[in-house]
Amino acid sequence: MDYPELSLLVAGTPRSGGGRAVRPVVNPATGAAVGELPLATDDDLDEACEAAATAFPGWAATPAYDRYGVLRRAADLLRERAGEIGRATTLEQGKPVAEATVEVRGAADILDWFAEEGRRVYGRVVPARTPGVRQLVLRKPVGPVAAFTPWNFPITIPARKIGAALATGCTMVIKPDEQTPATALALAGALVEAGLPPGVLSVVFGDPAAVSTWLIRSPQIRKVTFTGSTAVGRQIAALAAEDVKRVTLELGGHAPVLVFDDADLEKAVRLAVLAKFRNAGQICIAPTRFLVQSGVYDEFTDRFAAAIGTVRPGDGLDPATTMGPLAHVRRPPAMAALVADAVEHGAEIAAGGGPVPGAGGHFWEPTLLTGVAPQARVMREEPFGPLAVAVPFGDLDEGLAAANRVPYGLASYAFTADRSTAHAVAEGIEAGMLAVNHFMLTAPETPFGGIKASGYGSEGGTEGVDDYLFSKLVSEA
Ligand code: NAD
């Protein structure tokens, strides 16, 4: 098995052993341990913050062109190692190895893009009211950042945070999820090999609440960025507020898909199956609530249920697998509770609905529930798994009202042949992102973020760079 040795990375040096506590990393396809992860001591955490603060002035003063060189070299190393890193991802996270390998290449693209964009951090000259006065607006890095990333995209999400921070001259202490440490360490390792100075990036693991409290309260940390659940995001924002630290939050979603009577149903269903069951539905922008106009509701749900039969759940190392297990032992019971509650509220199971028969590990069938009552928990709680619901609606206003009914506002989707319907959805939908007639929303060049309980700030596009900068006014007479 190709699972690497695990360590912390503090002040440029891997750390393990030394009496540190450890926890196992479990392969979700089998339930077997694949590795042992050392957990940071309080001294490790303090030294990581100290190193980030010590390295910050030098890294901020490094020409953007040189920072670009480091990130670009790291991106090339990731591309060279994509197969090997992708295999480690599958062993610790479960997704099919082809999907994991594509994710590594995508992370390389993200580093490339931030590397380039870091060279285009321009200030402004603002005309003054007084003759002889020159007003400059300088764009400066905010300082050392504490980052917390989840297990669902174990290289994409760290790459977005690390890429933006390092390209702009910030330093970072990152705590990736303890279920997926090897993938995040492979990214950090590529950066170190590419010439990143010691201390610019440290990687720590431990009890999530204890580590995040420690890092956010550290006087050296000036900004916090978190991707995960809304419940945890709330706690993190509250902690950061105590010392008025800047925060970026990418939290949960509950994406609606408005399918109108005039939609191309063949295309909508074909793409919906891919988008819903990719990464076993463990995606914050996964389509979840299929709100289907009454004229095509029956046809859409019949086609969707039939297409679900083409999904092949299995071990991600098997090339025939198109959907892996859920990443955590706690996720199948979460699916079971949502399905049982929906059925109690009158829903019908059109496809799936239970654990994958005969499978070990943490598998759940690709599932479609139809006729789900608004009171069912799944209509407002993010399933974060291979579970879709379908509900009919009448006219555009009713569809939009249903789409906007949840506290979340991250991704949204619509399928229609009519430009004016698409325009009305774009105006009326309460979401940070909308895709019409497809499901693609994640390019390094475009902003990625939500509103309402889905958080604030952005992790892509020029907006993602702005999140790591502050404006300094210099007025010279
Ligand atoms: P969870 O809330 O227990 O954990 C979510 C993530 O936050 C994990 O990576 C975890 O290690 C981390 N975390 C937990 N407590 C923390 C703390 N106090 N400080 C810092 N980090 C902390 O949920 P889970 O069971 O792991 O995942 C399921 C839920 O998480 C889903 O319902 C989904 O909303 C959310 N989630 C969202 C994303 C996303 O991309 N937005 C990714 C993963 C999980």
From TrEMBL:
InterPro entries: Ald_DH/histidinol_DH, Ald_DH_C, Ald_DH_CS_CYS, Ald_DH_N, Aldehyde_DH_dom, Aldehyde_DH_Superfamily. Keywords: Oxidoreductase. GO terms for molecular function: 2,5-dioxovalerate dehydrogenase (NADP+) activity; succinate-semialdehyde dehydrogenase (NAD+) activity. Gene3D superfamilies: Aldehyde Dehydrogenase, Chain A, domain 1 (3.40.605.10), Aldehyde Dehydrogenase, Chain A, domain 2 (3.40.309.10). The keyword Oxidoreductase applies. Its EC number is 1.2.1.26. GO terms for biological process: gamma-aminobutyric acid catabolic process. Residues 23-473 form the Aldehyde dehydrogenase domain. It holds the Pfam family Aldedh. PANTHER family: SUCCINATE-SEMIALDEHYDE DEHYDROGENASE, MITOCHONDRIAL. Belongs to the aldehyde dehydrogenase family. This is Alpha-ketoglutaric semialdehyde dehydrogenase. It comes from Pseudonocardia autotrophica (Amycolata autotrophica). The gene is araE.
